[in-house]
Amino acid sequence: MPTKNPRLNVVVNEEIYKIIEKLSSQEGKSMSVVAKELLEDAIDKHEDLLLSEFAEAREKTSKKTIPHDKAWK
User: Fold this and answer.
1) Residue 12 lies in a domain
2) Angle at 23 between CA 17 and CA 29, to 5 degrees
3) What percent of the chain has pLDDT over 90?
4) Cα-to-chain-centroid distance, residue 13
5) Tens digits of per-residue pLDDT, 40-62?
6) How far is residue 17's CA from residue 15's CA, in Å, rounded to a whole number?
7) What pLDDT is recorded for position 25?
8) b/e string for 28-64 if b means 16 or more Cβ within 10 A?
9) Does residue 42 belong to any structural domain of this protein?
10) Most CB atoms closer than 10 Å: which of 38, 52, 61, 71?
């Protein structure tokens, strides 16, 4: 049966496989779903880090700043 979602095959070492297998069993989810959720969490963390770095760089170059209390009135 065709699917609308793209597929990805990933090769992992035995330690990672066992961790995903254990999480899958504990959570009652397929290994595929557990792996997908772990990838999504990792991507979220990377995005947060990149956005934080972008904001810090922007703060350093910004000439006009607004005090916190004025910004949230």
Assistant:
1) no
2) 105
3) 55
4) 21
5) 999 999 998 888 888 888 878 87
6) 5
7) 98
8) eeeeeebbeeeeeeeeeeeeeeeeeeeeeeeeeeeee
9) yes
10) 38
